[in-house]
Amino acid sequence: MPRYADKLLADGERITMRTRQHWLATIIDARYPWLIFIASVVVLLLSQNLDPGLFRDLVGYLVLAGFVVSIAWLIRVYWNWFSQDYLVTNRRVLKVEGIFNKHSADSSLEKVNDAVLDQSVIGRMLNYGDLDILTAADTAIDHYKMLNRAPEFKREMLNQKHTLEEDIARPLPSPPLRAAATPAAPTAAVAPPSSPAPPTGPAAPSAPGPVSMTADEVTRSLASLADLRDRGAISAEEYEQKKAELLARL
Fold first, then answer.
1. Contact (Cβ atoms closer than 8 angstroms) between residue 212 and residue 178
2. DSSP structure class, residue 109
3. Could you tell me the end-to-end alpha-carbon distance of the chain, in angstroms, rounded to an integer?
């Protein structure tokens, strides 16, 4: 079953890494429900020494309420952790959080300038850290707290950014030149010498026509143009102009 984050991907966009917060973050978020649960267990054990009566019944109801509240709270914390999706794609960094009400935030790889990673000693041992993604103005646009596999996440993000920049800077492939076959000139009889023609002005050069292309060559060129348009390297107007030029060469 596809996750919610998978439905946010654009055409041609693919996931290269998926992670979430480290499991240790759930212990910090769930410290209060765990305290309530442990306190309920302790009170339940102590209430066994009480004499049957109204007070013992009230303590029992209190213990029951503590169990219900703590378990429901713990389910919510761990469900929220499981619903997290922190993704690196070939175009952006995407964060999705929330159980029913989803919150998503993404950062285009073209706008990312650097990433600041902070790891404590325990974080290096358990492979997690805090990651801040920076723009060209050195302004943090997103914060990933206690990110699982944080060094690998940062490395993959910078690798995909470098690959995207290379694709944008790569020029469009030019259509292959095809030499026109010239038929052999028939052998002509030797004509008698004639008087030289009067000199005329230099002949005007003829304007070169568009180089013809096969249907396969045009299809490949259109696919490259569409990929650049989807990545934002060229505008839709530039794409349509190049498309018309290519179709004219058929």
1. yes
2. T
3. 45
For the stretch 123-182, pLDDT in tens is 999 999 999 988 766 666 788 999 999 999 999 999 999 998 888 777 666 655 554 455
Return the SS3 of 218: helix
Structure tokens at 135: 């723009």
- Find residue 85's DSSP bridge partners: 96
Residues 6 or more apart whose CB falls under 8 angstroms from that of 149 comprise 19, 127, 128
Residue 38: both structure tokens together: 């442990």
CA 3 – CA 239 distance, rounded (Å): 33
Which residues fall within 8 angstroms of residue 70, CB to CB, at 6 or more apart?
Answer: 33, 34, 36, 37, 40
**Residue 73 tokens, joined:** 């709270």
Helices 54-82 and 31-47, axial angle in degrees (round to 10): 150
H helices within the chain, ranges in order? 24-29, 31-47, 54-82, 121-126, 150-169, 215-231, 236-248
Q: Any alpha helices (H) in 48-178, and if so which ranges? A: 54-82, 121-126, 150-169
User: What letter represents residue 170's amino acid?
Assistant: R
What one-character DSSP code corresponds to residue 149? T
pLDDT per residue as tens digits for the range 194-227: 555 555 555 545 545 556 667 677 777 777 777 7
> Residue 10 carries which side chain, given as an amino acid letter?
A
**3-class secondary structure, 25:** helix
Q: What's the CATH code, domain 4-168?
A: 2.30.29
* Token digits of residue 239: 């794409």
Alpha carbon 110 to its chain centroid, in Å, reads 11
